[in-house]
Amino acid sequence: MARMPVEVRRTALIEAALRVAASRGLHETTTRAIVAEAGMTLASFHYAFESRDELIDRLILDVLAGEEKTVLPDELEGRTLTELLTDGLHGYIEHLRADPAREQAMLELTQYALRTRLPMAKEQYAQYTRLAAVSLALASQHTGTRWIVPLPTVAQLLVAVTDGLTLNWLVNRDDEAIDSAVRAAARAIAALASPASPASPASPASPAGASH
Amino acid sequence: MARMPVEVRRTALIEAALRVAASRGLHETTTRAIVAEAGMTLASFHYAFESRDELIDRLILDVLAGEEKTVLPDELEGRTLTELLTDGLHGYIEHLRADPAREQAMLELTQYALRTRLPMAKEQYAQYTRLAAVSLALASQHTGTRWIVPLPTVAQLLVAVTDGLTLNWLVNRDDEAIDSAVRAAARAIAALASPASPASPASPASPAGASH
DNA sequence: GTCTATACACCGATAGAC
DNA sequence: GTCTATCGGTGTATAGAC
User: Fold this and answer.
1) I need a labelling partner for B177 at 20 to 30 A (CA). Which of B14, B34, B95, B192 fits?
2) Is residue B84 a contact partner of residue B76, using CB atoms and an 8 Å limit?
3) Can you give the distance from the CA of residue B41 to the C1' of nucleotide D4 in angstroms?
4) Using CB atoms, which residue from A114, A153, A161 is nearest to B164?
5) Mutate to test the interface with B, among A153, A166, A176 (most CBs of B within 10 A)
């Protein structure tokens, strides 16, 4: 095989490992399967990494950190809070639908980290929650609403809902059901803000939303 | 070893397997580890079960089926919908707190089923959702409220929230944070019902909130 | 640096004595 | 029915030629 800088080799192996984990599950992501996917030999693997565990660490760090659980829609103006939440959740579900195997691998990685790398799991989860808090703060700002429950708590709930809906879709693969659940979730979470109306789809041209 | 009816042996092995899965994770729940935990020999295992896969099947069936994700509090009278939901979720979290390792094993079993026994995972999930729907119907009945979103959708959301909060607590082990999140979740879900006020402990007679 | 060949541990499963 | 001993396969990791 061609000579390659060890860092390039490492990256290639991590990407190969992610593909294997997505298609066959983490428990079948063996060193042999990874090098086969990457077109390398076993010895090359152990030249690049001390051990399989070391690669798994990098996999969790690089790949879970790249995940962004919630994304706000681009356009924030002229939408109600419920609409923003619906679109945000819907965007995440779209991402899930686009590559379910990958997201399932993420779930497996999280669970593996939970069992054997607890500090990494904690840090990762805190990161998701901070990101959710930022999105929620922006959303309330742009709709002139105010969270009547502490923002970190709402953020926790949003992350929990996202995780739960992910599992729901992975199990059932039911697009209509998940869309209903997403809308209900958005409406429910929006009810934790005041005073603007949480809801109705047909919103008239209300500049600056409801009140202050 | 003492002779035992094969069904008794099967049960003992399944219980041993659950203990191993809880303490060391599903991927370390090998036939050898199981029989060591049960105080048997390898040969006895294969006398009771055709294969390890067969035991895992039974484990999923017997043990996931025994799970009841949401339980209503005993006393339903004189409580608001939010209170009922809070107590129900809180009861589940108590159950989780009492035996986190077991619940983590459940999560691993679910994920394993998702990867290799999809129909079983689907059926199990549907069972949880039906149970949630029954609880939600009872709760709205007893509080004189009505779900303004289809009941199955609310049930889906409740299951998703339960799953998400489970993961949250397993990662953070933060009792105060989870209690806040539980209360917020209850309040949010209660907002999907009308007309009774979804929320504040001191609830005035506010007819039909913001509605839609 | 990259390869082939192999060491060594552990897996699920079975044969055959008792 | 229950045991000990062992098979064949696969896992991670390494030795040593090139």
Assistant:
1) B192
2) yes
3) 10
4) A161
5) A153
- Taking domain A6-64, whether its CATH number is 1.10.357.10 is answered by yes
Distance between CA atoms of residues A79 and A101, nearest Å: 33
Judged against a pLDDT cut of 90, whether residue B201 lies above it is answered with no
Q: Determine the length of chain A.
A: 212
Residue B65, pLDDT score: 84
Q: How far apart are CA B144 and CA B71, in angstroms?
A: 20
Residue B181: closest CA among A53, A15, A110, A155 = A155
Q: Is the pLDDT of residue A83 over 70?
A: yes
- Between A63 and A174, residue with greater pLDDT: A174
Q: Does B52 touch chain A (CB under 8 A)?
A: no
Does residue A197 surpass a pLDDT of 60? Answer: no
Q: Which residues from chain A sit within 8 angstroms of residue B167, using beta carbons?
A: 110, 160, 163
What distance in Å separates the CA atoms of residue A205 and residue B71, rounded to the nearest whole number? 44
Mean pLDDT of all residues in chain B? 91
- Taking only the tens place, the pLDDT of each residue in A129-173 is 999 999 999 999 999 999 999 999 999 999 999 999 999 999 999
Residues with Cβ within 8 Å of B66's Cβ and at least 6 positions away in sequence, in order, are none
| C-alpha to C-alpha distance for B185 and B168, rounded to whole angstroms | 13
